[in-house]
Amino acid sequence: MYAHRPTEVEIDLAALRHNYLLLRQALPPQVALLAVVKADAYGHGAVAVARCLQQAGADLFGVAIVEEALELRQAGIDRPILLLGGAWPGQEDCLVQHQLQTAVFEMAQLERLQAAAARRGRRCACHLKLDSGMGRLGVQPAELPAFLEEWHRFPALDLVGVMTHLAMADLPAHPHNSAQLRHFAEAVALVRQAGFSPRYLHAANSAASLAQPAGLCTLVRPGIALYGGQPFEDQPLAGLQPVMHFHSRIAHLRELPPGHSVSYGQLFVARRPTRIAAVPVGYADGFNRRLSAGGAVLIRGQRAPIAGRICMDWTLIDVTDLADVQVNDRVTLLGCDGDQCIRAEEWAERIGTIAYEVFCQVSKRVPRHYLGQTLLPAAESPAAAGGVVS
C-alpha cells in the first residue's frame, strides 16, 4: 500500500437511503419508483448507489446508455433497468439478452428490437416515449395513432410503459407543465384505445414527482433529489440530506507580506500579512475554476475564502482569520463541516450552472469512499463498487 493524495469524495449511503425513503413516503403506495442512476449516479458511483437503493426498495433503475446498464447487471442488480433515451442501432441483441427495458420513439427501433427478440426467442419490454412539449425525443402527437397501429406488427414487443419529460418541472406552477401533462393524458387515452394496457405511466423527474397531481402517473423517476440536490428552483424541499462530501487537506502553510500576489494572473494580492494554505485539489478534480472569484471552503467549521485562481491541481486558501489552522486540517469543498454546509446549489449559482453538473463534474481521479453498509457480495472487492467502503 502506498500513501495517497488526501483528496477524496465521501458518499454517505445512509443519507442516500434517507432521501429515497423521504421521496417514497411522499408518494401513494401504488406508484412505483425508478431511481435514476445514469452518468455514474450523477458522479456518486452507480454500482454502490444501485445496490443501496435496490436494498431500500427501488422498483426500477434508469440509465442513459447500454454500457451503464451492463455495469449494473454485472454487479448483480436484478431489478428492471430502463434505457431512458433508447438503444443505439446494433445494441438490440445485447438489450434483449440482458433483459433491459428501453424507450422507443421511432419505427426503425421497433423493427430492430423485434428482429433481435425473435432471434433469441424472447420478448422485449418497451416504454413508448412521447414528445409532449420538450422538443427533444419522442413520438409527436400527430404521429401517435399511426405509430400505435404499426406496433401491432411486432408481437415480441411488450408496451409496458408510456413516458414523457417535462421541460419546466423545476418550476411547478409554470403553465407549460399543465399543458404537457394534458397532452400526455390525451396520448395515454389513445394508447389504451389502441388496445394496449401499459403498467407504467411516467412523466415525473425529482421535481415533478413531488409537484404533479396525484393519480396521473403510476411511476416516478427521481434523480437529483436522491443525491440531496434541490429539485425545485424556487422552493427548497426540507429534509434532503447531502450524499456527496468532497474533501481534501491542507498540505502547506506559508506567511506572505502585504503586496505579495497569489496564484496565476495576480488576481489576489495580499493587503496585510496573510496566511495562505495550499490544498492539493484543482479544476482537474472538478473544483471549478470559476469558483476562484468569491468561492469559499470550510475548515474547522468555518468558511475560508479562496485566494487567487484555482489551478489544475492546487487551490490556495486565505486562512488568516482562522485560529490554530494546521497542516493536515480537513478542507471541505462540498458538503458539511459542523453546522456549516456548502451545497451543490451554491456552487451552481456561482458558476452559472445547475447542481446536476456540479455532481457530474467531480472527476474520476478523485476516489470515492463509501460510508455505511457495504452492500457488497462476499466474494467481491470494494474496488468493484467504484471505491472504498467503510
From TrEMBL:
The keyword Isomerase applies. Its EC number is 5.1.1.1. The keyword Isomerase applies. Pathway: Amino-acid biosynthesis; D-alanine biosynthesis; D-alanine from L-alanine: step 1/1. GO terms for molecular function: alanine racemase activity; pyridoxal phosphate binding. It holds the Pfam family Ala_racemase_N. HAMAP family: Ala_racemase (MF_01201). This is Alanine racemase. It comes from Desulfuromonas thiophila.
